[in-house]
Design brief:
By secondary structure, this protein is mostly beta strands. The chain has strands at about 5, 10-15, 20, 25, 30, 35, 40-45, 50, 55, 60, 65, 70-75, 80, 85, 110-115, 120, 125, 130, 135, 140-145, 150-155, 160-165, 170-175, 175-180, 190-195, 195-200. It has no helices and 26 strands. The chain has a 9-stranded mixed beta sheet, with no helix packed on it.
């Protein structure tokens, strides 16, 4: 039997939203028109999910996070509290002639977050960017360029300071091979093929 999804009575969820089995939308969250939530997702208190945003299975969008369209979240993505995914590369309230800017005066761009990646609390991801598979963005960081798979990035602007495995813990260098990294939690091994690329070792 499929798990039943749950929407709190204070949440504002458009009728056109698709919500997968077992997903939960909590107090005062807003999920806009034509958004899609996969199975077993959590949308926390006061979070915002924009029009047409695509969220995969087993994702967590924590309290007061702002996920603006056209963001895409793959399976297993974690969005920490108060994270912001922007959608306007050249933000302005008015046009150059002083007239109020309308929806027709700009083209939204999104943040694409790949499988298993995590965005720490209060981080800001400035679209358009891609956050790679299983990457980890440190709390409070400001991300302005693409993040490689398995990268650990921190700061403003965010820079890579290491690598993480699927368990989220920083990888350690094999003392016998500086291109080989090991996860202290799982023992899984990864190999760095160049400055910006890390791959799992079968």
């Amino acid at each position: 039997m499929s798990a039943v999804n749950f929407v709190h009575t204070t949440a504002d969820v458009a009728e056109s939203v698709s919500i997968g089995d077992g997903s939960k939308v909590w107090h005062y969250a807003q999920v806009r028109e034509n958004a899609r939530l996969g199975a077993n997702c959590v949308v926390g208190r006061g979070a915002y999910v924009g029009t047409g945003v695509e969220v995969g299975d087993n994702c967590k969008i924590q309290n007061y996070a702002l996920v603006y369209e056209p963001a895409k979240l793959a399976n297993g993505v974690f969005i920490g509290p108060a994270v912001v995914l922007t959608n306007d590369h050249f933000p302005r309230a008015i046009n150059a002639d002083g007239s109020p800017k309308s929806a027709d005066d700009w083209h939204p761009v999104g943040v694409d977050i790949r499988e298993g990646a995590s965005i720490g609390a209060s981080a800001t991801c400035v679209a358009p960017i891609v956050i790679g598979r299983w990457a980890l963005v440190g709390s409070g960081s400001v991300v302005v360029k693409d993040v490689p798979d398995f990268a650990l990035v921190v700061g403003s602007p965010a820079r890579r300071i290491g690598w993480v495995g699927k368990a989220g813990q920083p990888l350690t260098v094999d003392p016998d091979d500086p291109t080989l990294y090991v996860c202290p939690a799982t023992g899984d091994r990864y190999r760095q093929t160049d400055e910006h690329q890390l791959s799992e070792v079968e």
